[in-house]
Amino acid sequence: MRRDSPSTQNSEQALAGDTLSQPVLNLEHTCLAPMDDSKVVGGKVKKPGKRGRKPAKIDLKAKLERSRQSARECRARKKLRYQYLEELVSSRERAICALREELEMYKQWCMAMDQGKIPSEIKALLTGEEQGKAQQNSTKLAKAGKTETNSSNP
């Protein structure tokens, strides 16, 4: 038995006079795929070279030189970024060392005060504050005295 496509069978049955079969398909005018060089994209037929950006014929040497220049600039930016980060790390490390030294000084002061001794640095701070308060009080009294004399001499 010979196997034929459905369209061939339909045309043979139509020629034989079989009226119960499907109607005859005329294959001469139907086209399932475009016959030219066009492409089907998203259900739409696109013909090459009609619209859009045309590929430019770029000189290969110029393209390679631009690529090299871009790579040089990228490496320079990377180097600057790493320098900045290294400076940032070193400044933070210096700040950490200074804070550790200050913490150690405060620990020593606390240990000395626990033993009943007042460190000389704390005495200097206290006397400096007392002197500052005394100066502030004397300036306040002087200003108050001036206002009293001004109010009594009308």
UniProtKB/TrEMBL annotation:
It is found in: Nucleus. This is cAMP-responsive element-binding protein-like 2. Its main location: nucleus. Belongs to the bZIP family. ATF subfamily. Residues 1-21, 38-64, 129-154 are annotated as: Disordered. It comes from Cairina moschata (Muscovy duck). It holds the Pfam family bZIP_2. One of its GO terms (molecular function) is DNA-binding transcription factor activity. One of its GO terms (biological process) is cell differentiation. Residues 44-55 have a biased composition (Basic residues). Residues 60-109 form the BZIP domain. GO terms for cellular component: nucleus. Keywords: Activator, Differentiation, DNA-binding, Nucleus, Transcription, Transcription regulation.
